[in-house]
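Subject: Sanity check before I submit

Could someone independently write out the structure tokens for this chain? I want to compare against mine line by line before I put it in a report. The sequence has 123 residues.
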Amino acid sequence: MTAKTRSLVAFAHVADVERSIRFYADLGFSVENTVVPQGRSTPIWARLESGRAELMVGLASGPVDAAQQAILFYLYYDDIRQARAALVALGHAPGEIRCPFYMPGGEFRLEDPDGYVLMLAQI
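---
Independent answer below. Compare away.
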């Protein structure tokens, strides 16, 4: 018998949890839970959710080096052009929409405040 995974949730170390909450809110995520330790006024961890997408962010113990990020996060949208336009209107700087062979509906790149690469795509 093999182990059967039920779900997978990414966890990203970030420099500022509140800043990440604000950024991911622009992508449709809402805060489902936070941890604010006694003696602190800001969260050190948060679980974010948008539909079936989940992301945990936690305060990094040291500097976050964008050049060392070796993972891509793929986020899927029903209308990639509308998603990109909404992000531009919110002041973000997403890349241009490309349509590679593996993503004929289109995709574009966006970096979060800590340098994590997000690929926003339409299935």
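---
OP: Matches mine. For the report I'm noting this point. The chain has a mean pLDDT of 94.
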